[in-house]
Structures are given as structure tokens and as C-alpha cells.
Specification:
- The complex is a heterodimer.
- By secondary structure, chain A is α+β, with helices and mostly antiparallel strands.
- Chain A has one domain.
- Helix content of chain A is 26%, strand content 22%.
- Chain A contains six helices and ten strands.
- In chain A, the strands form two sheets. In chain A, strands 4-3-5-6-7-8-10-9 form an eight-stranded mixed β-sheet, with helices on both faces.
- Chain A is globular.
- Chain B is an alpha+beta fold.
- Chain B is built from eight helices and ten strands.
- In chain B, strands 1, 2, 3, 4, 5, 6, 7, 8, 9 and 10 form a ten-stranded mixed β-sheet that branches.
- In chain B, strand 9 and strand 10 form a beta hairpin.
- Classes of the chains: A alpha+beta, B alpha+beta.
- Chains A and B meet through strand 8 and strand 10 of A and strand 8 of B.
Chain lengths: 246, 237
Amino acid sequence: MNRKMIKTITLRILALVAVLCAARPGRAADAKNPYPTSMAPLDQYLMDRNDEIALARSAAPPSIAEDATVMVLGRYGYETAVEGTNGFVCNVDRSWMDQFENSPEFWNTKRRGPVCYNPQAARSVLPITLIRTKLALAGRSKSEMNEGLKAAIEKGELPVLEPGGMAYMLSKQGFLNSKCGNCAPHLMFYVPVKDAHTWGAGALGSDAPVLLSPHFNGAPEPVTEFIVPVTEWSDGTPANTDDHAH
Amino acid sequence: MKRKGWMKATFAGLLSIAALSSSPAAQDKPQEPTKEVHTIDASTPRERQIELALSAAPTEVSSKATVYILWAKGYEKVREGTNGFSCLIERSFKETMQVSAAPACFDAEGSRTLAQTILRREELRAQGKSEAEISEAEIKDDIAQGFTDGRFKVPGPGFLYMMSNENCFYDSDAKQWGVVPPHLMFYAPYKTAKDLGYEAISPTMVPYLTYPGPEGLIVVMAKKPAQDSSSGDSHKH
């Protein structure tokens, strides 16, 4: 084997390594974004089943969560771990519930968002979570997930939003993002998407009485999510007055 | 977002606080409502009515909303808005006595649905020679019939603002007027306490559910925008 051939093989191996590294799930892009830029190995998003059930239930007051259906993330999507009796459904959101644009933590493996939907939202909002998760676990990229959701919406796979739909996010143990950690306890309400500014809702961090969630809002889900912070966590302890909602 | 100033008690607790916010002396000597301050009718100056109605929502919303005020035949539209919201002062009565004057701004969905029932209520009240001559029971029956015969529509998802500091109600037990703290109301027709995870309506539930039937609403206390000086901060209670 002459020197030229060795050099060629070496370069090809280096190129292959570079390609494999680029394609490796969960690779961090650069120092500006310390989070994975594509889905990390699934195991990093999974939890111990009992821990996930407890975390999901922490989203709402015990009187609600104890009788709620609980869904946990499995290798093929969310699955029912506890069959409830009160129509509520609790689960722990993962990072791919973030908005598609300007979401550096879209693949953050640490993200754990406990949420309990009331019956109306369980029927008409939770399906968004299930579809997004199905796409993520199928190995779709962020942009492919976005396109997949658009297609699902066009096919009418998302139920019509029901009035009275709301969700509790009162867990002290959640991790919603790296800026505010478990953030602040809050309620979420859902209305059909329209020009967000007509509602008078403020951006997160603003002083408006009702806050506009960055999630959904026509990109692509036709749902506007409002956030109304409250003063107590699900365990009844008061929230820190400096906490932020998301 | 700083959360200082957020309500630290439940809806019912805040109502109680509001009802008892007068001086101890005032509590010892229950006062009859002061009409000039608390009640609203067609004789209330136009500009005052507009000011109160607009105080229900953040300026960003109310400045572009349709506005209704009371006049001899019910409500009169005095401004056509551009954002779909409708602002007015909603009144309620216990027998012949006005027991609330609540500035409210409905979103487009509420303007199309629930606000129409409020317009109708005042239309009916105005048909009497005096407000005492048409009973609240008759009005209630008419509204209920309206939902049955299609005159009124059940709202879809949406909400209304009640952010005014001059949302007044009369506490008949304490025999004095109080102020309902700023809040939002999300449309929840035909919802029950169970839909919010409670066995029954409770004064301590958060969020709170009010009005059974097609006019059901989920009540969430909210803070007042710190820099919104246009929203009824000049109340005189």
C-alpha cells in the first residue's frame, strides 16, 4: 500500500466519521446552543414508569390527579398507565412540544412538563401531544415534524376545539425550560387561533393579565394557548412571587 | 414576569375581602347602596358609562372595541370597534334592586353570543315603565327560551375581560357594596364542577365555575397591568 493510497483511505475515514458524527442523534451544534439539535437517543427522554406517573399527577391538585387517567411515554408513544375515572388526563410533556421556530431547547432531554387536561382539553388538545410524539419517535426532524403536523391538520386529524377546555400545570417538580426551571404554577386555556394580538394577551414576561403561550398559535396547530399564572403549586404551597410562567 | 401583586386568595376569598374592605365602623353600621357611586342606569352620564365600560379590558383591547351604553330603550351602540371586542356595563338585579354594575369586554365570540343576552336583558328592563315593572324571573325565562328557539347562540371557546377596579356588587348579607377583583372569564357552556375536577361548586375552587347552562363561565382571577392607567383606577369606594 503506497503512501498516496493510505492518505486517500485516511481522508475517506475522516470524512465518514464526520458524516456519522453529523448524523448522530443529539449532537450539539455549537457553543451557542448547548442542547441537542436533533433527537437524542430515546432512552434519554424516557423515565421510570412510576416516577413518570407521580410526576404527571403533580400537575394538578391531588383531588383531581388521583382519579385522572395517566399516560406515560413509551418507546412507541404515550401509553395509558393508569385508567382514570374523572375524565382528566395527565402526562409529562417532552421538549418537542415547544414551538418549531426559535426553540433551541426543542430536543432538550431534560424537559419534563407535567400537565393535567380537563375532559374537554383531553379530547381536543391532548391529541396534539400524541401526534407530535408519534412523529418525534418516528425519527422525524423538527422541520419534518412541522410538515407532518400540517398534513395531519389538513386531513382533519385534529379534533375541533371544545369550549371550556383547560389544563393545570401546577407541578413544582417539572422542568419546563432552562430559563425558569419549573417556572410558575399556571392554568392554560385554549381558543381557536386568530390574530393573537386581538386578544390583548401579552408575551411571556410581560405585565398583561393573560399571557400568550408561544406554543401552537397557528404554527401549525390552529389553537391559541393562554397562560394564567396562579399563586399555589399543586401541593398547596405558595409560589415564589418572582417565579415566571415558562 | 414579576408576579408581585398577583391575587393571593381564592375567588370567593377575594369576594369576601372585597365585601369587608370597608372600615370596621362601616361594618358595624350597614349602609344602603349609594346610587351615585355604585349603580348605573340610563341617566348615568354618557362619558362616565363609556369610561366604565372601557375600564374592563387592557387599553390595547378596549381602545378598539365596540362600546354600548345604557339609554332609555336598553343599550345603545356608541362606537363601532375594529377588533371584535364589545365593552359594556352589565347589570344584575335582585327583585327590584340593582346588585351589580360590572364593566365587561367580550371577545368576538362572546360579542356574537353571550353579549346578545345582556343586550336583551336591558331591552326587556327598558320595556317596563320602571325597572320594577318587569321581573328578573321573566327576563330569565326569556333568555332561556332564546337559547331554545335559536335567538341566542351558545359560545364556542373564548373569554371576556372583567378587569375594572369598579366592578361593583352589593352584598345583601353585609348590606354594603364591594368590588369584585379583576378577573377573566372563559366561556364554558354546560360545564360542571366535575369538568374542573371538583365534586361540586366550592367557594375555594380555582378556577371557579359560575352560571350553569349555556352561559357557564370559568372565572380566573388576574392581575391588573401595572402601567394601564385607563382602567378604572379612579374608583371612589
